[in-house]
Write a structure and sequence with these properties.
Helix content: under 10%
Order of helices and strands: EEEHEEH
Shape: globular
Largest sheet: 5 strands, antiparallel
Number of strands: 5
Number of domains: 1
Structural class: mainly beta
Length: 102
């Protein structure tokens, strides 16, 4: 996780999601849940002893074209290159940086 340099976040509604910006990652820290504020997590949680990755993001860079992101019933992420995100238009077409992380 500490080698992550950019983060792209999908947003949308029940009809679909899209990625419109690429955020530079300023820092990544592994934190105990009890160390995180409600403003950082978005919700209260009883799992106080679990570990979470905390990303500090910089100013977003708009993508030249929206990246279409299919609806998934659970959280999904992919490690890939920023160049591929900037050139792509579909999540499914992005190459994975590591075969074991898809």
């Amino acid at each position: 996780m500490r080698e992550v340099r950019y983060c792209a976040i999908a947003h949308g509604d029940a009809d679909g999601r899209k990625i419109t910006h690429l955020y530079p990652v300023k820092s990544v820290k592994l934190k105990n849940r009890s160390e995180l504020e409600l403003e950082q997590t978005g919700r209260a949680d009883s799992g106080k002893n679990t570990k979470f990755w905390l990303f500090e993001l910089g100013y977003p860079q708009p993508l030249p074209q929206e990246l279409v992101f299919p609806l998934f019933p659970h959280f999904k992420f992919r490690l890939t290159n920023a160049v591929d995100v900037l050139a792509g238009n579909k999540w499914d077409k992005l190459p994975a940086r590591y075969a074991q992380v898809k």
